[in-house]
Amino acid sequence: MPFSLDVPVDLKKAGWKVKIFDKEGLEPPHVTIMRGPDVWRYGLREKRLLVPPGGTPRDVPQGIWSAIALSLARLEAEWDARFPTNRVGGDHD
Q1: Residue 92 carries which DSSP code?
Q2: Angle formed at CA 14 by CA 12 and CA 15, multiple of 5 degrees
Q3: Quick one: DSSP state of residue 54?
Q4: Alpha-carbon gap, residue 65 to 43, rounded angstroms
Q5: Which of 57, 3, 67 has its CA nearest to residue 29?
Q6: CB 88 within 8 A of CB 62
Q7: What pTM value is reported for the model?
Q8: Residues with Cβ < 8 Å from 51, sequence gap 6 or more?
Q9: Which residues face 17 on adjacent strands?
Q10: Given this model, what pLDDT does residue 84 score?
Q11: Strand 30-35's sheet: what is its strand order?
């Protein structure tokens, strides 16, 4: 089951979600930001949007960025627990 980050209620009602999916362990550590069919990936190592997919940071509401920033340690711990061979702070070339 994917991990879902709590986002502000108004953004949740508007369809915004932030998740870590279970089957992405071979990819660079990231969270997926979604609203309807639109998807962005925020790199947990890079601390920025990854492309592709995704748009620019201004496409995502400030409340989502704040939720991610306030929960960064938890998001990294969730990723590391799900994918211990691809840890956020692990070796990566």
Answers
A1: -
A2: 65
A3: -
A4: 13
A5: 3
A6: no
A7: 0.90
A8: none
A9: 34
A10: 96
A11: 3-4, 16-20, 30-35, 38-43, 48-50
